[in-house]
């Protein structure tokens, strides 16, 4: 039977890490899609008090004059992985396109695997080996800073000690976002999964184990940098998160891209992380979308915005493969 610490870590990982991180240097927040004028009517299933959003939304299809009725079509929506407790209210036209799709494509299908398999994956990739302590895997000054933060937050250092630094950073950040009233349970990706009808399928681009392995394979230096940044920026997380959230909510692509990648410019030592965990996976997911589109079905994709922005994002990759990529806009969208 798992301890409360492991259960807590399982919830953090399965609902946050596997759908993106929200750290300053490793910003993994979501937004993006493609264009035609979208409506803004509220979703029929929106909860009372849901926060309205007009995220960036894309339509992608094979650029062909042959009128091939078997050619597939992809609607690609950027997801923010947390939300207000009442949820997000998306434009009706986004939801209409979702309902027209035969397949929902997400980064990870969280329904795959048994709870025991998911628990084991978290333990394998999140815990330090051999019962070691994080104290022996980070610098003394960072360990001191971690202890001070946990004491201030009234959390137990003993419960944190067995976990890898990247895991601790993720848990601490999740706690902060929940305190702000933005739990992971209200993220867009989970909401779309919950909307899947009986005649629709869900396909995961990656497995849970693959995403965990990406994170646990980060170098010790990058894991320490990630944890240090979370601790040093803890008091400013609210302002930074609001900036990201508003860029996503208003569909402001230029603002979002600037926020997402300015940390790479400020911290060039993160380049290997970006190359492997972001750009490398962009290429892999682009290839997977290409394969799925060959099946001729209408797809609705939901992935993190860090995979969708810039010249190395998934839309740009598919455009280079000959697909017609168009931004679908809702009235009130900002950005270009």
Fold and architecture overview:
- The protein is of the alpha/beta class and 336 residues long.
- It has one domain (4-328).
- It has 13 helices and eight strands.
- The strands form three sheets. The chain has a four-stranded parallel beta sheet with strand order 3-7-5-6. A two-stranded parallel ribbon has the order 1-4. The protein has a two-stranded antiparallel sheet with strand order 2-8.
- The longest helix is centred in the last third of the chain and has 23 residues, at 271-293.
Helix-strand blueprint:
Blueprint: H1 4-15, E1 51-52, E2 57-62, E3 73-79, E4 88-89, H2 92-100, E5 103-106, H3 115-126, H4 140-153, H5 157-160, H6 165-179, H7 188-194, E6 201-204, H8 208-216, H9 220-232, H10 237-249, H11 253-266, H12 271-293, E7 298-304, H13 314-320, E8 323-328
Parallel strand pairs: 1-4, 3-7, 5-6, 5-7
Antiparallel strand pairs: 2-8
| Total number of beta strands | 8
Integer-rounded radius of gyration: 20 Å
Please tell me the total number of domains: 1
Sheet with the most strands: spatial strand order = 3-7-5-6
Low-confidence stretches: 1-45
The amount of helix comes to 40-55%
Number of helices: 13
**Approximately what portion of the residues adopt beta-strand conformation?**
5-15%
3D shape: globular
Largest sheet: 4 strands, parallel
Write out key terms for the chains shown:
336 residues; alpha/beta; two-stranded parallel sheet; 11% strand
Short description, anyone?
By secondary structure, the protein is an alpha/beta fold.
């Amino acid at each position: 039977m798992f301890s409360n610490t492991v259960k807590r870590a399982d919830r953090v990982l399965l609902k946050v890490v596997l759908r993106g991180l929200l750290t300053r240097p490793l910003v993994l927040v979501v937004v993006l899609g493609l264009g035609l004028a979208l409506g803004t009517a509220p979703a029929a299933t929106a909860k009372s008090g849901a926060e309205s959003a007009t995220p960036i939304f894309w339509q992608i299809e094979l650029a062909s004059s042959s009128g091939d009725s078997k050619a597939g079509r992809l609607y690609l929506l950027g997801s923010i992985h947390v939300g207000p407790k009442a949820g997000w209210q998306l434009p009706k036209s986004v939801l209409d396109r979702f309902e027209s799709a035969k397949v929902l494509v997400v980064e990870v299908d969280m329904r795959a695997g048994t709870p025991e398999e998911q628990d084991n994956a978290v333990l394998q990739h999140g815990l330090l080996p051999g019962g070691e302590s994080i104290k022996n895997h980070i610098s003394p000054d960072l360990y001191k800073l971690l202890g001070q933060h946990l004491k201030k937050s009234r959390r137990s250092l003993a419960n944190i000690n067995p976990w890898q630094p990247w895991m601790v950073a993720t848990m601490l950040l999740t706690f902060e976002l929940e305190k702000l009233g933005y739990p992971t349970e209200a993220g867009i990706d989970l909401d779309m999964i919950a909307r899947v009808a009986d005649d629709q399928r869900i396909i995961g681009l990656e497995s849970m184990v693959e995403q965990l392995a990406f994170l646990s394979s980060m170098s010790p230096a990058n894991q320490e940098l990630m944890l240090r940044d979370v601790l040093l920026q803890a008091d400013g997380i609210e302002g930074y998160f609001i900036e990201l959230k508003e860029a996503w909510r208003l569909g402001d692509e230029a603002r979002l891209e600037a926020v997402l990648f300015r940390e790479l410019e400020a911290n060039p030592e993160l380049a290997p992380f970006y190359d492997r965990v972001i750009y490398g996976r962009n290429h892999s997911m682009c290839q997977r979308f290409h394969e799925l589109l060959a099946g001729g079905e209408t797809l609705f994709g939901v992935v993190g915005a860090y995979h969708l922005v810039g010249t190395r994002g998934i839309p740009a990759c598919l455009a280079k493969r000959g697909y017609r990529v168009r931004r679908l806009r809702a009235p009130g969208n900002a950005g270009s």
